[in-house]
Amino acid sequence: MSSTSEIQIRNVSMVYKGQKGEAIAALNNVNFNIREGEFISLLGPSGCGKTTLLRLMADLLKPTTGEIVIGGLTPGEARKTRQYGMVFQNPVLYEWRTIQKNICLPLEIMKIGRVERNEIAEEMLELVGLSDYANRYPRQLSGGMQQRVGIARALAINPKILLMDEPFSALDEFTRNKLQEDLLKIWSKTHKTVIFVTHNISEAVFLSDRVCVLTPHPGQLADVIDINLPRPRSNEVRDTPEFMSLLARIRKCFMGV
Amino acid sequence: MEARRTKNIAALVWFVGLILAWECGAWVLQNVMHDSMHMQKLPYFHQVAGTFLVNFNSLLASAMVTLSRAFIGFILGAVVGVAVAIVMSLAKFVGKMLFPYLIISQMIPVLALAPIVYSIVKSQDAARIMLSAFITFFPVAVNMYSGLKSVDKDKIELVYSYTATKIDTYCKLMIPAALPHLFSGLKLSAPAAITAAILVEMLGTKEGIGIKILNSLYYGANGALIFWASVIMAALLGIFGYAVIAFIEKLVVHWEKGDREEGVS
Q: Residues in chain B whose beta carbon is closer than 8 A to a beta carbon of chain A?
C-alpha cells in the first residue's frame, strides 16, 4: 500500500443554520489523512456528520472553516476533473434509461464517443455481475441489483476515488453481506481509494483498512481504528474472534455518547 | 388479464346502460310528460345516432376543420408552455415574477376573451388557433414547471458531481424527469383546446363543428337532431384528442409502469 496522502482533511468544521437561525455544529475540527488505495469507513450514529464529511469531499457542501485537499486539488477542482465517483444511499438511477444507458450517463456528459461508451459500460456490467441485464430498466431490478448499477456507474469514469454514502443501508442483511463481499472483490481489482459512510459497525470492520469513528453533538473524529484482518476477506471472517474483538472495541468508542 | 376483462365488461355495461337510460328519458319526456319541446330537449338516441350516421361525412368534414385549427393552437400553446416552464425553472426570479400572471391569465373567462381576440385579429383561423393555444398554455406550463421543480435532489447532485453543463442537465435529466407531469398537462389541454376552437366558431365562422352546432339551433325539431349529432361529434373530437395524447404518453413515458422481476441480489 502506498503511503502518500491522497486526501487531507485539515481543521474542517461545518456549521449549519438551524430553522430558528441558531448555529448547529455538524462537524467540529476534523483532521485526517487518507492514503491512496485505502478503504476507509466513516462510522457513526446519525447526526455525527459522517455524510456531511463525505459531501464536503464531493464538493456538494463547502466547509465553514478548514480545508480539504484531494490529490493536491480543492474538492471543486477534483469534481471538475472527475477524480471521484459517487454512490448514493438510494441507487439514484434514471428510470427512463436502461441499465447500460445509466452507466453511460457520466460518459455522455464527458463527451466520450458511443462505441467507447458501450465498451466501458459492458466492462462495468461484467465487473458488477449484471451483464445479462444491460437492456433492462431500473424498475425491473431488485434493490441490490440497482445498487450494483450505481457502483458500476461510479466506476465507469475510472475515478481515483469512490465516495459511498451508506450504499447498502436500505438492503436486507443477506443482500448486504453479498454486496459487501463483492465490493471488496471489485475494490481489489480496481485499486480505488474508497471512502465508505455507514452506521453499521460490522460493515465498517468487514470492509475497511481503517475505521474513522465519529461521535455526534457536535460531530467529531473520536478515534481511528486500524483493521488488521487479513485480505482477501470473505464472510467467514465475521465469525473470527479478531472480528468480534474489533466490534467490541469500536462499540466502546460510542459508550457514554 | 382477468382484471382487464372485468374492466372491459364493466365499461360495456355502463355504456349500454347509459344508452338505455337515454332512450327511457326520451320516451318519458315524449309520452308521459307530453313535452312539446321534447325533440330539442332530449330526442331518442337511435334518432340522433341515425342522423349522426347519415350526416357523418359532412360532420366529419366540419370536425376536421375544427380539429386542424385546434391542433395548431395546441402545439403552439404546448411549445410556449414548455419553454416558459423551462425558463422559469432556470431563473428563479423569472418564475416568481411570472407565476402570479400565469394565474391571473386563467382568471379571464375564455368566453369573454374569444370575441375580443376575434375582433382584434379579424381572422377565423388565427382566432381559433390563438384561443386554443391560450387554453393549452396554462396547464402545460404549470404542470411542466412543477415537474421540473420536483426532480429528485439526488438525481441533480449526481449530474452535478459529473460537472454536467446546463444543457446536459436539462436534456438528460430535468426534461425526461418532468415528462410524466408534462403529459398530465397535455391531457388536460387537448380536449380544452378543441373546446376553445369550437367556442370561437360559435361567434360565427364559415366552417367548423361549432358553427354547425350554432346553425342547427335555428331549425326547430329537425335541427335538433343535427344539433345533437354535432354535439356528439364535438365530444368525440375531445375524446380523440385526449386518447391521442394518452397513447403518445404510453409510448414515451414507458418506465412508469410494469412489474419488477426477481433476480440475483
A: 152, 154-155, 157-165, 168, 172-173, 176-177, 179, 253-256, 258-265
Q: Residue A23 pairs with which residues in a beta bridge?
A: A17
List the helix and strand counts (H, then E) for chain A.
8, 9
Domains of chain B: 1-42 (no CATH), 49-264 (1.10.3720.10)
Contact A139 B258 (CB under 8 A): yes
Q: Phi-psi bin for A86: left (phi > 0), alpha (psi -120 to 50), beta?
A: beta
Cα pseudo-dihedral B101, B104, B110, B112, rounded to 10: -110
Q: How far is CA A1 from CA A34, A166, A182, A200, in A?
A: 12, 25, 21, 26
pLDDT in tens, B13-72: 999 999 999 999 999 998 888 888 888 888 999 999 999 999 999 999 999 999 999 999
Query: Cβ B160–A178 below 8 Å, yes or no?
Result: no
Q: Do B176 and A94 touch (CB under 8 A)?
A: yes
ipTM: 0.90
Whether the bond into B191 is cis, omega within 30 of 0: no
The C-alpha of B145 sits at a distance from chain A's nearest C-alpha, in angstroms, of 19
